[in-house]
């Protein structure tokens, strides 16, 4: 990552010029500011853009509470699972070049995943498994239908096996991406590939596939093929010394209920484990550029990263019979927001706005991160929205429905 010629997000037009109700957005800012003032959030950045122009940019609170450093437009954020769409775009570059196919069996690129087995019954040493009815395909990794899982789910006996294998944080301690993926491969799947949906380590496996197919480390491939062409010069798997002062601290709940600094993904030097699932740091200006590339169906500032048809493919629901996550899979982070929401190739996708937890347009796509970051692109209303903070408590994600509601209700023209 380099700070050269970096993009700093700026508000370009007034909300009314974009057909947005400023009073509704003011209400959202007051709601978020109250969370900062009462100690529930350290600070935040919110941007709302329409037709590619930023119509509301708010920064409030601190990126470092102890130092009294404020959130600013160029603050750097650990975006965690908002890395997944970036990795997915990187994989689709290889698909467009014919080096990778969505229907490739995973074992073609990662032989350790040959002959997968599926949980049948029991747990621990008494678990019974059987051969999977088919191979894991690349499309299963992109859509989280591979049968893989996360150790932190605590919802299935296979989740416990991940914890027993030392995969609590999705990485085998001391291992790189290749060794960690081998550890995943030794564990059974929760279900036959393609027969269910479960949020999982699949994008880490996808990152390893990118390395094998491209012959490059994941950080180099993503940097040269995605971040570089999009001029996302403040984004990467590590930060430079000159950027360290802009990195927001990560917070969690202290014993007394106040916010305290908690360890985040190490980013001051190149990580040994390159996580395609959650390893990126980015500025809001950079992630705005990524969203704009998607909104413009693969092109930004004269640079075409993906074909329009590829972006269209990625951002439509890939669950069978247009199912949503609730009917086809498991909850995400214990949230009840899966009804009416399907999944594409790297993104959640709204399939039935009448059943979503907060107002949305059909076809809206995006994703969120564990540090309470979220983004979405609404093609119907031509909106791109991002919210950045650095807070790990699960309760903080209850903010997302309110943010979505007030942004959606701000659209008046």
Question: Could you explain the architecture of this structure?
Answer:
- With 413 residues, this protein is of the alpha+beta class.
- 27% of the residues lie in helices and 17% in strands.
- Strands 3-2-1-16-15-14-13-12 form an eight-stranded antiparallel sheet. Strands 4-9 form a two-stranded antiparallel sheet.
- It is globular.
- The two termini are 39 Å apart.
Could you write a compact summary of the structure shown?
The chain is of the alpha+beta class. The chain is 27% helix and 17% strand. The strands form five sheets. Strands 3-2-1-16-15-14-13-12 form an eight-stranded antiparallel beta sheet. Strands 4-9 form a two-stranded antiparallel sheet.
Discrete helix count: 11
The spatial strand order of the largest sheet comes to: 3-2-1-16-15-14-13-12
**Structural class, please?**
alpha+beta
What does the main sheet amount to?
8 strands, antiparallel
What is the N-to-C order of secondary-structure elements (H for helix, E for strand)?
A: HEEEEHEEHHHHHEEEHEEHHEEEEEH
Strand segment tally: 16
Sequence stretches where pLDDT stays below 50 over 5 or more residues = none
Mean pLDDT, rounded to whole units?
94
Radius of gyration: 20 Å
What characteristic shape results from the CA principal axes? globular
| Percent helix range | 25-40%
* Strand residues, percent: 15-25%
